[in-house]
Predict the structure of Transglycosylase SLT domain-containing protein.
Amino acid sequence: MSWKVSGIVVAALLAASPALAQSAFSTKSQARLFKNQTKLLDGRASEQYKNSVRLKPKPVYTPSKWGDGRFKGKYNGPYLAMARQAAALHGVPVDLFLKLVQQESGWNASAKSHKGALGLAQLMPETARVLRVDPLDPQQNLEGGARYLSQQYRKFGSWRLALAAYNAGPEAVTKYGGVPPYKETQNYVRVILGL
């Protein structure tokens, strides 16, 4: 009879062991185990990929709350036709250049920035000298601005980077390999492109 009782006890323990094991291995323990395993794997992955290069997909520009990239300014004065002509002459998208002038000077031909940039397209005196334009003459200023923007586009291959170079200087774009991390420049590019 003792064999029968022993057999029943063993059978009962075997049948109950999955339930006992499950309750013994609580949710808290599972969470702790998961956290520890994740930490271990993350550490191994970070060590393995420490010297690798991260690939960055090219940004896709879509219309947003900032607009669709078209010039919608209220300015309708004499410099508008000059700006359109200068943009067309140098292969710059007309709406892009009109937004640049709006952002740079608000169509004020006598505008002067705190850094010394002059006129409608806010050319720095040295840039104007290299371009051989008079920054105080509205037509020459616009022509110089469109030509300079076109040069930056040819150098960097995108209007986004050309605008960043126009605002922060081509050296900054080269140094950072893209739009520099300056809030002013990032906002400038976003507003003009309508992002």
